[in-house]
Each structure stands twice: as C-alpha cells, then as structure tokens.
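From the methods appendix. Each design record in this collection lists the tokenized structure first, followed by the designed amino acid sequence. Records were kept in a plain field format so they could be parsed without special tools. The example shown here is representative of the layout used throughout.

RECORD:
FOLD TOKENS (271 positions):
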C-alpha cells in the first residue's frame, strides 16, 4: 500500500513538472537526446526527494524552452542545395514555424546523417510545414510565380474539392527522391511498388508537391519534367494521383494503375 502511494505521489509530481515544461510523452526521447540538463535535473530532484522521504513542490515554468537545432548544419553540409531546412522553407513560402513545430524538427539523428551521405544527390531533405496542396497553390509566393509553378491556380483545379488536396503536410523531416524509381515506368502500380527497397515507401502527393515547389522556390530546379510520378493517393474516382512538371508548370492529374511509359513511381525514405 505504501509503495503504491509512493509511486502515485512521484508520478503526480512528475506530471506537474512535465506540464509546467510543456512536455508530452512523445517529446521525452527528444529532450534526453538534446541533453536538456535542466529538465533532467528537475526530474532527478523529484525522485531523490521522494526517495529520502521529503516532499517536493516543483517550480512551474511556463516559458517554452528554445529548441536547439542538432545536426542541421551537418545535414546541410552533406545535402548542399538539396537541404531545405526551417529557414529555407520559411523563406520559400513566407511562413513561420512555431516554437513547438521547431522542437519537432530540432533533432536530425546521427543514423539519418549516414543515410544522407548515400543519397545527397538523389534526394531532397525538407522540413515539412502544415500546408495542403491547395494551401501551397494559394500561397502568395507561389501565386507570384504562377506561370512557372502550377498549371491550375487557386479555384480552377479539378482537385480543388478532392480530399487528397486538402490534407496538410506533417511537421517532420522528409527525404524524397528527386527522380522516379529506377525502371518503374511501363509497369502496373502494384509492380512499381515491388521495386521499392527496404526503407523506401510511396509518398503522399501533398508531400511530393510541397517538396517539389519548395525546391523550385529555393533553387529554381524543376523535378519530374520528362517522367511523371505516381503517388500513394487515390481520388474520389479511385484513380491514382500522378504529378509532374509540364511546360506550363506543375500538373496534378489522376490516372489509373495501368502501365504508362511516361509515369514512374515517387519514392521517399521512411526512416
């Protein structure tokens, strides 16, 4: 009985500490990896005081801890112009990441750096911002480049009311392939998927559109000009979403799953 009370008291105090620091369970691993010593010391103090039989009233601090970028510079050194970090995305779309969003993007694990070295020329590493395809299309920086970016601008696209075009990109790191998967043209969609290697997946159209437009706004490079790519999404017509740059800008279309010589498969790393 005493042990149960002890444990409950400890976790009650710990929850107060976590709440005061605006920490969720999902952020704990990030905090430890970042070496947030003040937070670690605070939690350790709770445990020590209860182990000694003393009470503890945590000091609640509602001031968000400034996120510390870890390995961003190293990733940019590896990827070069294929690195679209927080600053690049903010400039490209004229947006601003919140402190909480920056915290989610603060750490790029060492294991990812090893992956980047193998695909620095073939992939884009981009920080995701919560925009949908229609949000991207309506973005003022995109509208200002309308003739180069989208064949269908706001309100005129066939997909304006389609669910796939109205779901936001997640705030996380994306590592997307800049070209279709090798030898993926002239294949059924199910056979294209078989070409994905371990650690690869077929991404959502919103992620590919976001990264593709962000890259163009940052470097002027246009992807998928000769070979389009299939994405994971299906439309309300049950056709597969495909996209690529044409002469008039990025075109998003819906095709069935049959083989086409001009349609390959989009790919991203899922690690």
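DESIGN:
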């Amino acid at each position: 009985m005493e042990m149960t009370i002890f444990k409950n008291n400890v976790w009650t105090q710990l929850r107060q500490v976590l709440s005061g620091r605006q920490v969720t369970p999902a952020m704990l691993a990030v905090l430890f990896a970042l070496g947030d010593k003040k937070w670690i010391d605070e939690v350790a103090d709770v445990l020590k005081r209860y182990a000694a039989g003393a009470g503890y009233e945590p000091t609640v601090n509602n001031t968000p801890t400034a996120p510390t970028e870890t390995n961003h510079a190293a990733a940019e050194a590896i990827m070069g112009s294929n690195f679209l970090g927080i600053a690049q995305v903010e400039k490209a779309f004229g947006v601003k990441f919140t402190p909480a969003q920056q915290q989610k993007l603060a750490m790029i694990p060492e294991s990812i750096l090893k992956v980047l070295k193998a695909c620095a020329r073939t992939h884009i590493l981009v920080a995701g911002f919560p925009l949908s395809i229609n949000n991207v299309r309506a973005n003022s920086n995109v509208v200002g480049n309308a003739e180069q970016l989208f064949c269908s601008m706001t309100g005129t696209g066939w997909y304006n009311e389609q669910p796939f075009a109205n779901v936001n990109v997640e705030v996380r790191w994306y590592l997307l392939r800049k070209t279709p998967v090798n030898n993926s043209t002239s294949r059924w969609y199910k056979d294209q998927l078989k070409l994905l290697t371990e650690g690869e997946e077929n991404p959502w159209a919103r992620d590919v559109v976001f990264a593709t437009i962000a890259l163009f706004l940052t470097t002027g490079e246009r992807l998928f000009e000769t070979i389009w790519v299939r994405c994971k999404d299906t439309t309300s017509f049950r056709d597969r979403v495909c996209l690529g740059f044409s002469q008039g800008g990025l075109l998003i279309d819906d095709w069935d799953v049959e083989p086409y010589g001009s349609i390959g498969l989009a790919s991203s790393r899922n690690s």
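APPENDIX NOTE: Strands lie at 83-84, 123-127, 173-177, 200-201, 228-234, 240-246, 249-255, 263-265, 268-269.
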